[in-house]
Design goal:
single chain; 5 helices
């Protein structure tokens, strides 16, 4: 048991540095999109972007480390080969990677949307004072406004997540091209 919880002897420093770079790129792009589309101030936009990206990144790595021990040996060797040497042994692995990337995109979109929704509701409730009694018409107007905000929140989160994934994909393509030229 203690062997499973010990620190690794070899750290994938490149993967750690690229994860940091990806977080910085995603936070800046998504913060900008939240600022422009949802009309948040810059400080709130960056706060929401940091919260969404760090939470989804930590959750993603936790899921990875929970799933990794039960992977097939061939898939593990492919994963290690890519992380440490930036290449795949089996050409068929790339189609699996593309499928997994799509699932990860959808998963992070859902996580980011739900977290943003929770943060907005929580911070709105903290700042809200007691409301006076409202009429039925005002309640219906408020419900319609919340539904419109919800649709706008979904679209904005999808656009922000897509833009950050495109930027990260471009960084990976440039990295692979520069390695291929050597």
């Amino acid at each position: 048991m203690s062997e499973e919880l010990s620190l690794p002897r070899i750290l994938p420093i490149g993967a750690i540095l690229f994860e940091t770079l990806f977080l910085l790129v995603a936070i800046s792009i998504e913060g900008y999109v939240l600022h422009r589309w949802l009309k948040f101030d810059k400080k709130s936009s960056i706060f929401y972007a940091i919260a969404m990206n760090v939470f989804s990144s930590v959750l993603g790595w936790n899921i990875f480390f929970l799933v990794e021990p039960i992977l097939d040996v061939n898939l593990k060797s492919e994963l290690i080969s890519y992380i440490f040497f930036n290449n795949f042994k089996n050409p068929g692995t790339q189609s699996t990677i593309i499928f997994l990337a799509f699932l990860i995109f959808l998963g992070t979109f859902l996580i980011k949307f739900l977290l943003l929704k929770i943060l907005i509701i929580t911070l709105r409730e903290i700042g809200k004072k007691e409301e006076m009694e409202t009429s039925q018409k005002e309640k219906l107007q408020r419900i319609e406004k919340i539904q419109l905000q919800n649709n706008n929140l979904i679209a904005t989160t999808l656009i922000a997540n897509s833009m950050s994934y495109i930027a990260i994909t471009l960084i990976l393509v440039i990295r692979n091209l520069s390695i291929g030229l050597k």
